[in-house]
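Appendix B, example 12.
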Amino acid sequence: MPEGDTVHQSAHRLHTALSGHPLTRSDLRVPKLATTDLTTRTVLDVTARGKHLLTRVEGGLTLHSHLGMDGSWRVYTPQERWRGGPTHQIRAILATADHTAVGYRLPVLELLRTTDEHHAVGHLGPDLLGPDWDPELALRNLRADPERALGEALLDQRNLAGIGNIYKSELCFLLRATPWLPVGELSEEQATRLPTLAKKLLEANRDRPARTTTGSTRPGQRLYVYGRAPRPCLRCGTPLRAADQGDPTRRRPTYWCPTCQQGPTP
């Protein structure tokens, strides 16, 4: 599941493979961009912003993509076989003489003027892995709606950008608060620790091939709670629990320990 660290890894791979080179192939497989041709344009930069990817090319254009729940960008050399999924799932192909970047299952793919990038990402809060990171602003954003459940507030990219469903559950566990605890009921210590802890988790995983929040790389012990119910909590041994959280159209599986975490539950 792509989260802020995964998207930054994708941006780094794409930037390394494409930037500074002219495109020899451009195939954007969405109706609005079916006739768009970016060939001969040099890729200037690929940048992550929260969970969004911005591929800037000469001529003042930016290809904006979002990975959604299961999208991905894969980079191949000319000799490699494409393994990211069946052909009908390909939404974008960008190639240079030495590499081909293939975007699979991208729910968002649009071409913008680079000067208009704010239309796509201007609503986002401070990026946990970006140069605009501001922990005080992130905390003010979270506290702006004190009645909102902590888990839902963390997933709202307008508060802080980069947290997905996995980090939501893991952060709540590390803060010892259930995901249903209203933000306003966090202790001062929990609240002030939250932005620093979130950044620490994402930074620790931005260059890892496999995500871990526990520090362990052993199978089944990489994460404290996410995806582990009803197995025992790594801290206290209590069977972990799982439930959906969010409005009916965007419910997300959520995991917690009923002993280690304090606050309301479903």
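The mean pLDDT is 95. The first helix runs from residue 4 to 18.
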